Amino acid sequence: MADDADDAYEEPLFQRVIEYAAAADRDIVRMVSGHPDWDPPAALREGLRAYADGDPETFQYPPREGLPALRGEIADRRGVEESQVIVTNGAAEANYLGMAEALDRDSGAEVLVTDPVYPYYPGRTTMLGGETTRVSVGDNGHVDVDAMRAAASGDTAAIVLNTPNNPTGAVYSLEAVAELADVAADVDALLVVDEVYDHFDFSGRFESAVTLDRDNVVVTTSFSKALGITGFRVGYAVFPADLVEAALTRHTLVNIAASRPAQAAVLAALEETPPAYYESVRDTIRGRIDDFTAALDAAGAAYTTPEGAFYVLVRFEGFPGTLANVQRLIDDTGVAAMPGAAFGETYDGWIRFSLCTDRVDEAADRLAAYFDGR
C-alpha cells in the first residue's frame, strides 16, 4: 500500500497530541512519547561536569565523524571498524542518513516499511522525494518476510525496519532480518535497521544486524533511550565501507558535527556504567508492563505484551484509536496516549501507551474506571 499523500510529513500527530495535552485544564498522565523518566547513569553527569571544567579548546567543533574515543568505544562494542561509525544528532539523523543514501543510489524511489510504523520514517521518505509502501506485519506484530519479498521490486531503494519495534514491541529474529537483507540485495536496495531500543529486549532473542556484516545493511541507533538522555541528541550509524564518505558529507552539510559536550558525557557513561544500570531500567519497565496489563485485564481490554521497547498497544471495544478518541481520553480521563491510526492501518483500532512514567498504575485505574462506566 503506497502513501499517496504527504500526511506523515505534513501532520506530526505526536506534536498535536502533546500540545493538546499541554493545553488541558486538568492533571494529565503523559503516555504519548518515549521520554525516559529514569535517572541517567551517575558517570554521565560526572562526565558532563568534567567537560565543563575543561580547556576552552575542547569547546570548539569536534571531528565531523565524532570524537575518536567515542567512535572507538562504539566500534569495540559492536565489533565493527571505527571507520564505519558516524556519530550523529540522535538516531533520527542516523536513520535519515541511511535512508538518504539508499535513495541517492539511483536504484529506485520506493521505501518499504512495516505497517504499523513509526510515522517519521514515511515522513522522511516524503522529505527525501521517495514514496512509501507499507507492508502489514504478521502475527504478534512481527515483520512478514514473505509479504516484504512480494512487495520488493526494481523500484525499491530501501527496506526500513525497527527492532525492538515501536509500536508493536516485537523483537525480530536475526534470521528474519537476514532474510530481508537478502530481499533487499536481490533488488539492489539497502536494508536500514533502527535498533534504538536494543537495550530494552525482554525476550532474550535480540541480536544486532551489525553481526550480519552485509554490504547492503545500515544499522542506526542512539543513546537517548538506553541512558535516559533524549535531549542530548547523540546517536550513530554503522555504514558499509563504500557508503561512509557520502553519508559523512551529507552529515557535515546538515549538522557539521554532533554536540561535543554531549559526546564527551556519553563516552564517560559508556566507560564507567556497569551492566547493573541497564538491568535496573529493564526491571523498572518490566514492572510497569506487568502492572499496566494486569489493570487492562481487569478492564477487559485487548492489548499487546511487548517483547521489547516500552510501549503497549491497547484496544478498547467500540473505541477506535483515532485522534478524536485520544483527545476524548485526555479530556475525560486525564490520560494522554497516541492514536494507533498514527502508525498506519493495521492497528488503527488501537491506542499506544508509552510506559515512560511512574504513574502507570494511576493511568490504568483511570482508564478502567472510564471504560467500566461506558
From TrEMBL:
Q: Per its UniProt record, what SUPFAM superfamilies does this chain match?
A: PLP-dependent transferases
Tell me the ranges covered by the Aminotransferase class I/classII large domain, including all copies. 30-366
Task: Provide the organism lineage as a comma list.
Answer: Archaea, Methanobacteriati, Methanobacteriota, Stenosarchaea group, Halobacteria
Q: Which residues form a coiled coil?
A: none
Name it.
Answer: Aminotransferase
Q: Which GO terms describe its molecular function?
A: pyridoxal phosphate binding; transaminase activity
* Pfam families hit by this protein: Aminotran_1_2 (PF00155)
Q: Which cofactor does it need?
A: pyridoxal 5'-phosphate
Q: Which PROSITE patterns match?
A: AA_TRANSFER_CLASS_1
The record's listing under Gene3D superfamilies reads: Type I PLP-dependent aspartate aminotransferase-like (Major domain)
In short, the EC number is 2.6.1.-
Q: Which key words are in the record?
A: Aminotransferase, Pyridoxal phosphate, Transferase
Report the record's Gene Ontology biological process terms: amino acid metabolic process
Binding partners and assembly = Homodimer.
* Record-linked InterPro entries: Aminotransferase_I/II_large, AspAT/PAT-like, NHTrfase_class1_PyrdxlP-BS, PyrdxlP-dep_Trfase, PyrdxlP-dep_Trfase_major
Q: What's the family? A: Belongs to the class-I pyridoxal-phosphate-dependent aminotransferase family.
Question: Is-annotated flag, keyword Hydrolase?
Answer: no
